Amino acid sequence: MNNMLMEGETVYNSHDDNHIVMSEKVQSLAGSIYQEFERMIGRYDENVVKDLMPLVVNILECLDLAYTENQEHEVELELLREDNEQLVTQYEREKQLRKTSEQ
Q1: Residue 91 and residue 96: Cα distance in Å, rounded?
Q2: How far is the C-alpha of 46 from the C-alpha of 89, rounded, in Å?
Q3: Cβ-based neighbours of 25, under 8 Å, separated by 6 or more
C-alpha cells in the first residue's frame, strides 16, 4: 500500500501502476465514498478515516478487478456460445447429409 502526498492531501493506492483506469461503475462508487469521507473529515477530522481509507481503496481495486474479469468472462462465454451454435449447425448438416446419402 502506497501513501503519496499531493498538495497537502494523502492519496492512497495499493499498486504502483497509477495508469490503471477503473471502470465507470467503480469510479462512480469511489466518488460517492470519497464525498462521504470528505463530509466525515469536515465534521470530525482526518483521523476518523485515516485507517479506513486504505481498506476502502483496496476493496474498490478488488471490486474493479472482479468487474473487469467478469466482463472478460462474459465476452468469452458469448464467443463459446457462438462456437457451440456453429458446431451444432455443422453437426446437424452432416447428420442430414449422411442420412440423405444412406437412402
Answers
A1: 9
A2: 63
A3: 67
Mean pLDDT, rounded, of the chain: 84
Sign of CA dihedral 37, 53, 12, 15: negative
Count CB neighbours of 22 within 10 A.
Answer: 17
- pTM, whole model, 2 decimals? 0.64
Band (pLDDT 50/70/90 cuts) for residue 102 is: confident
One-letter amino acid at 92 equals: E
Secondary structure tally for the chain: helices H, strands E? 3, 2
Q: Cell 437412402 sits at which residue?
A: 103
